Amino acid sequence: MPKSIVSDRDPVFVSHFWQEFFKMSGTKLQFSSTYHPQTDGQIEVVNRCVEQYLRCFVHQWPRKWSFYLPWAEYWYNTMYHISTGMTPFQALYGRLPPTIPSYNEGLSLVHEVDQQLQDRDELLQQLKVNFARSVNQMKQIADKK
């Protein structure tokens, strides 16, 4: 259990049940002030990272952004973090995250499975291209300053 949690006064955290649960667990609940939700800077940074990740898809498939949330979660949890010296997955489970094996067309006898895995690999490849382009653009802008 964490030693403390900073919350934006979500109903889950302000309920009597959860307040008592966290108190008995030794977790101190800290609430950001109502008009200053930026108190929890770490969450704001994570949100910006996930937004940037999702932007790589939005320009091509703007109505499908919610479909990519599990991929955004996987990306974030398997990305190396300098502050911890490991991925969040590794910090939680104590081992390296599983990798996604690439798929060779036609290996599955079920056409739908074959198509889904091909689409997944194409999506991951496009994401790498889009993300690299985004990082390059940010670098060019930062280098100008």
Tell me the number of strands.
Answer: 2
How far apart are the first and last residues' alpha carbons, in Å?
43 Å
| Strand ordering within the main sheet | 1-2
Structural class: mainly alpha
Uncertain segments are: none
Helix tally equals 6
Q: Tell me the radius of gyration.
A: 20 Å
- Look at the structure and give the mean pLDDT: 81
The percent of residues in helical segments reads: 55-70%
Q: How much of the sequence is in beta strands?
A: 5-15%
The biggest beta sheet reads:
2 strands, parallel
**Elements, N to C (H/E):** EHHEHHHH
Globally, the shape reads extended
Write the layout of secondary structure elements.
Blueprint: E1 4-7, H1 11-14, H2 16-25, E2 28-31, H3 41-58, H4 69-77, H5 88-93, H6 111-144
Parallel strand pairs: 1-2
